[in-house]
Amino acid sequence: MTGAVWVVGTGPAGAAWLSPETREILAQATDLVGYGPYINRVAESHHCCHISDNRQELARAEVALDMAESGRQVAVVSGGDPGIFAMAAAVCECIASAPEGRWQNVELAVFPGISALQAAAARIGAPLGHDFCVISLSDVLKPWSVIFNRLRLAAQADFAMVFYNPRSSQRSWQLGEALNLLAQEQAPDTPVVFARAIGREDEKLHFTSLAEADPSLVDMSTLVLVGNSQSRYFNHGGRQWMYSPRDYPADLRSKQTMTSR
């Protein structure tokens, strides 16, 4: 009997964020493979759980594929959406780089989840209402020079931005350098929001500006959202919101066109 690898996303927090499709897949799975905190969100009594460190993605993918080859129905569990800085890429990379024929009979499917950026944007209002880009500030899998150049180009193109993996105990300086770079290209009052632990009991939003943003308030449970030149704050219902208008002024469009030539 040939098994399956189903790559799923749990959303940013607990069971309330699971899609009906993902619930159904998890109910069918015999095994769960993933990082402990993500598996703990969804594990049931019938699951055999295989927990590994969050930095062992390729090894985790190989374990899942080997189990599926023996006939198991394996759910590889990611937080958020599995295709955004998560396990879908690791599973695909494993299969693509394997010797010809290995795992070819294993069923593969990827099921979307609510991403952290979608959850944070919804809490904030509509910060991604116009063109935007998503960048991981982690230099574990790519050099900082690449990240720095992408940030510079995104700022010059006036994208709204979302930063994943903005700051950790081992990487405490990158976010500050990123914000300093953006300050060379964008106005001091550009909206910046720190969205921490969205969907959890310790959820917190911090609204600030590019000039006032304090990297020390950010950790690995935080997404950083930076507006474009048209993004605005407004007050409603006793709290602050932020949005990026859907349209873009003609004079700024002309400026962007001239810059690209």
Could you explain the architecture of this structure?
This protein has 261 residues and is α/β, with parallel strands linked by helices. It has 2 domains: 4-114, Tetrapyrrole methylase, N-terminal domain (Cobalt-precorrin-4 Transmethylase, domain 1), CATH 3.40.1010; 117-260, Tetrapyrrole methylase, C-terminal domain (Methyltransferase, Cobalt-precorrin-4 Transmethylase, Domain 2). Helix content is 32%, strand content 25%. The protein contains 8 helices and 13 strands. It has helices at residues 20-28, 36-42, 57-69, 87-97, 116-124, 144-156, 174-183, 250-260, and strands at 4-9, 31-35, 48-52, 73-78, 107-110, 125-126, 132-136, 160-164, 191-196, 204-209, 222-226, 232-236, 239-243. The strands form 3 sheets. Strands 3-2-4-1-5 form a 5-stranded parallel beta sheet, sandwiched between helices. A 5-stranded mixed beta sheet has the order 7-8-11-9-10, with helices on both faces. A hairpin with a 7-residue loop joins strand 9 and strand 10. Helix 3 (57-69) crosses helix 4 and helix 6 runs parallel beside helix 7. The mean pLDDT is 93.
